[in-house]
Automatic annotation (TrEMBL):
The lineage of its organism: Bacteria, Pseudomonadati, Pseudomonadota, Gammaproteobacteria, Moraxellales. InterPro entries: FAD-bd (IPR002938), FAD/NAD-bd_sf (IPR036188), Ubi_Hdrlase_CS (IPR018168), UbiH/COQ6 (IPR010971), UbiH/COQ6_monooxygenase (IPR051205). It comes from Psychrobacter piechaudii. GO terms for biological process: ubiquinone biosynthetic process. Residues 7-374 form the FAD-binding domain. Its EC number is 1.14.13.-. This is 2-octaprenyl-3-methyl-6-methoxy-1,4-benzoquinol hydroxylase. GO terms for molecular function: FAD binding; monooxygenase activity; oxidoreductase activity, acting on paired donors, with incorporation or reduction of molecular oxygen. Belongs to the UbiH/COQ6 family. The keyword Flavoprotein applies. Keywords: FAD, Flavoprotein, Monooxygenase, Oxidoreductase.
């Protein structure tokens, strides 16, 4: 029998951003319901997933780590050992002089941490069952949203699920990714930019250790990132720091050619793919000894024309998506979470607990986050344009880019500024 349940806040999308936001609100004793289309996993199912190494990894900034600490998830991630901290970052280009080196080799300081997506998700979902939040947080898993009804500014939204149940909340938050149903149902338009590139993602074991360094090589065909991965097996731990996550951005046709080699599945084609990748990396870490878990995704940037409407707000990829060359996509979403919670709570306290998610409050969030996200999105697009493609191949552009990287790399205060920005500080 279908039921209707009322709550203060409804969050659609149970990924990292949505789950973190739900926990943060619950910690402030706000009634929140999180709707995740994926079925809830048992402890055994989580453990089965943890046995596998995921080629994908999130480069968590210091700001994102602090937010995960606040909701109690980072402590669980640390205990699991499934993270790879990095204390240095190296960026260089194939066809020019100069490189950018972030971090101090003599006095190592944490710049961030590489963590596989499901490791973060497991920690967040463990926290949802904790006594300090479960009284205020309800998880609805394994059911898809079929329709949204706006009932007016006083009542908010009614959400229809595929099992016939209905949920009602004063505030509806869309944290449901790039293809956001919430954004579409709200009639919010989208600005998009197609890079005509595809990213190949895989896990590799290299001849030389990564030494807690994240590396990014700017190639004429796109960027190649080598990101430290946590050591999973006992064999890995006995010889640590050799596994890395690769994100290799290529023109779409070239990426398809390389992916076809992988699909053929013979040892010879696997050797070709490893050789291509090692050569593209300029053998920065020697030969590639193993290659696992190849995946791909098209590259584009997008931003919602508006982040808010009456009783509705977008966060994370539902609001914006950027080029992965700086690894800041999730970090921008986590900054959305921090800003939204602070602004919601500030106006709620100011009103004596009467006003929650008013349009004026939501617009303050939009004014805070949308300009910042726009600058980041266009900055990453500009970087991609300067290093990859026909324009980037022009000799004057190469010379200007090379001289610019060389000069910037010599200005220590400027490098510290860039480091702080990348850390979300």
């Amino acid at each position: 029998m279908a039921t209707t349940t009322a709550t203060q806040t409804l969050i659609i999308g149970g990924g990292i951003v949505g789950a973190t936001l739900a926990l943060k609100l619950a910690q402030q004793q706000q009634k929140v319901t999180l709707i995740d289309a994926r079925p809830e996993l048992s402890e055994a199912q989580w453990q089965d997933r943890l046995k596998q190494r995921d080629a994908r990894v999130f480069a968590l900034s210091i700001a994102s780590i602090e937010l995960l600490k606040e909701v109690g998830a980072w402590q669980l991630i640390s205990q699991s050992g499934r993270k790879a901290d990095y204390t240095q970052m190296q960026v260089w280009q194939q066809d020019g002089k100069g490189e950018l080196n972030f971090g101090d080799e003599m006095v190592p300081q944490l710049l961030g941490s590489m963590v596989e997506p499901f490791v973060i998700e497991q920690a967040l979902y463990q926290r949802m069952a904790a006594d300090d939040v479960k009284e205020h947080l309800t998880l609805v898993a394994g059911h898809k949203v079929t329709m949204l009804d706006w009932l007016g500014s006083e009542q908010g939204y009614q959400v229809h699920l595929d099992n016939g149940d209905k949920l009602q909340g004063k505030l509806l938050i869309g944290a449901d990714g790039r293809g956001s149903l919430v954004r579409r149902e709200a009639g919010i338009g989208l600005d998009t930019l197609d890079y005509n590139q595809t990213a190949i993602c895989c896990a590799i074991k290299t001849e030389k250790p990564h030494k807690a360094t994240a590396r990014q090589l700017m190639l004429p065909t796109g960027t190649l990132a080598l990101l430290p991965l946590a050591d999973v097996t006992e064999q890995d731990k006995a010889n640590p720091q050799h596994w890395q996550s690769v994100v290799w951005s290529l023109p779409r046709n070239r990426a398809l050619e390389l992916l076809q080699l992988n699909q053929e599945g013979s040892p010879e084609t696997a050797d070709i793919l490893r050789a291509e990748l090692a050569a593209a990396s300029q053998y920065a870490l020697g030969d590639i000894e193993q290659l696992e878990s190849i995946a791909s995704f098209p590259l584009n940037a997008q931003q919602a024309k508006h982040y808010v409407k009456d009783n509705l707000v977008l966060v994370g990829d539902a609001a914006h998506g950027v080029h992965p060359l700086a690894g800041q996509g999730l970090n921008l979403g986590m900054l959305d979470v921090s800003a939204l919670v602070d602004i919601l709570n500030e106006d709620y306290q100011r009103s004596g607990g009467r006003c929650w998610g008013e349009l004026a409050t939501l617009r303050r969030y939009e004014r805070t986050r949308r300009p910042h996200n726009s600058v980041m999105m266009h900055s990453f697009s500009l970087m991609n344009w300067l290093f990859a493609g026909d324009f980037a191949a022009l000799r004057p552009v190469q010379q200007l880019r090379s001289e610019g990287m060389y000069r910037v790399g010599k200005i220590k205060p400027l490098m510290r500024f860039f480091t702080n920005k990348a850390s979300g500080l």
